[in-house]
Amino acid sequence: QVQLAESGGGLVQAGDSLRLSCVASGYTFGHTFGTYHMGWFRQAPGKEREFVAAISRSGGTPEYADSVKARFTISRDNAKNTVYLQMFSLKPEDTAVYYCAASWVGSVASTSPGSYTFWGQGTQVAVSS
Fold this sequence. Notes:
Layout: E1 3-7, E2 10-13, E3 18-25, E4 37-43, E5 50-55, E6 63-64, E7 72-77, E8 82-87, E9 96-103, E10 118-119, E11 123-128
């Protein structure tokens, strides 16, 4: 059972930056952090969970939601078992609980929440106008 722990959320003003981190632990079956594609998703009050960004197990070809493209950057450090989400130029509509997730399905990271098996507890990001 993989455990994922997010951190780095907070209350910021529009235009500010934040970096979220997600540390993974608890692998089984000989897996390592490098076994998993990693994704970031977010859920705002009253809305469904939506895809934000994803990165494949190799670190190549990140995927982004159109709403965050050119403002957010996903990266991973397999030696530190950590995936990051660097967020620039934050907007009030970015306010949500942000979750990281891990998947071993497929050859590239998926944008679908259903492809992810393990989820963190989430970290709150609030952006004031």
